[in-house]
Amino acid sequence: MTVRRTPLGEVAADLRTGERDVADYVAELYERVDALESDVRAWVGGPKPREQVAAEAAAVAERYPEPENRPPLYGVPVGVKDIFHVDGLPTRAGSTLPPGELVGRQAAVVTSLRAAGALVLGKTVTTEFAYFDPGPTRNPHDLSHTPGGSSSGSAAAVAAGTCPLALGTQTIGSVIRPATFCGVVGYKPSYGRIPLDGVLPLAASVDHVGLFTQDVAGMELAASVCVDDWEPSTGDERPVLGVPEGEYLAQVSETGLDRFEDHVDALERAGFEIRRTVAFDDIQAVNDRHDGLVAAEAALAHHERFDEYSDRYADSTAELIRDGRAVSVEALADARRNRVRLRTSLAETMRERGIDAWIAPGAPGPAPAGIDSTGDPVMNLPWTHAGLPVVAVPAGDVDGLPVGVQCVAGFGADERLLAWAEPIANALADAS
């Protein structure tokens, strides 16, 4: 399948200046949807009716007739993962529960995007309640492979070029893994820097709102709208990059590790200093604590609904909730405390070794065949547990399936991380 370039940075600039007409761009995207959606299946029932979006585009154009007064995302169509509440659209969360059980006020981040001039194109497919039970979405690079999850529709829609920006969430690896599998840029902020208000929770202590674009410049633009207290960073200094050696990296497949070593070599040739450092020497314990935390908090989030509608939940989600009900209060409290312990430990290692950002494979390998599984989030889990900011950038492919590198900075250093991501992405692209 042909994957079209729709870099948000260029699109947004052209829409603001008038180089692209908003109505024409919306029509172009609907033509793309008509050509691809029956295969990719990224949208919940398809995007909104084109007449509705065309009317919203006309209203935005009327509101901002002068280019110099247009907001940063003027006329930019956005896909929204179907666990975000959006005014005028139902929330189904990939489930068969009655829609009336899943209602709420519009998500704060959706309100921010609309205030910045964006148009909500529609809801994108999610696994059930953002856990593991997959929807119908396929990887645009190879329809016989998974796009990843749980933000499957958002990643696939951006990769297929049916929207230039999409919202997702990550509780284990649900932004960075699908971004890696689909060959796009994914960003998970420091915990709490994009508000979760109006988003159905899975595990509130580790839920993160995330974003998908095709380009790092576009990601910086979108982040500047969505992230609380955003302060632009030039990223002039070249970061020292750490490679987390040991049991964590041993979780990567042989193919994935070979490609990652190629990526490390490419970054060194581009002038980046690489420091290999043992990290996560207790990775299995971290994995177990995070899994227990997700299960326990999912049980809390779904307590009343599950009691009434347990027969409507997918087997994997029901098992998660039942497992979570067995987690003790003490174990839950310890898992919550461990988030800060891990964050502090990583910060100390970075300070001692002079590391500015970590790099690691975005997934154990390329997207697995089939759509019955969304792939393994194990490479993303510890960074999510610690609540650190992460950017996934494309890094070539293996037999036509994308692979990527995730870049991780210290807590709160989102702006510097995104500034550093551009030269990192360029170095990896040049070597692909």
UniProtKB/TrEMBL annotation:
This is Amidase. The lineage of its organism: Archaea, Methanobacteriati, Methanobacteriota, Stenosarchaea group, Halobacteria. SUPFAM superfamilies: Amidase signature (AS) enzymes. Residues 136-155 are annotated as: Disordered. Pfam families: Amidase (PF01425). Residues 26-418 form the Amidase domain.
